[in-house]
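Chain A, query sequence.
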Amino acid sequence: DGYVQPVVLEERLKHIAVAKKEYDTKIPWLADSMANDLKHAFGDRNNSEFVIGPAGKIAIARTWSSPDQLREDLEEMVGKSATSTSP
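Chain A, predicted structure.
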């Protein structure tokens, strides 16, 4: 949709706001700092994937993102989304 790589946190948060609305999600989204502090704290992997459960603990951790598996995991945890995208 013409988005560019975020340069400041406000841009990163704007991307999240648009995605939440477009994909009609009700789950909380997290945004890392522009210095990627969370990524570094979680092992600094290039394409890692984490799902944080309702209690604030890591429910799922992957060293490499798997969009298909993530979709299955989230559907199992919170139900199917009204809108769907291709991974």
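The radius of gyration is 14 Å. The CA atoms of residues 6 and 32 lie 12 Å apart.
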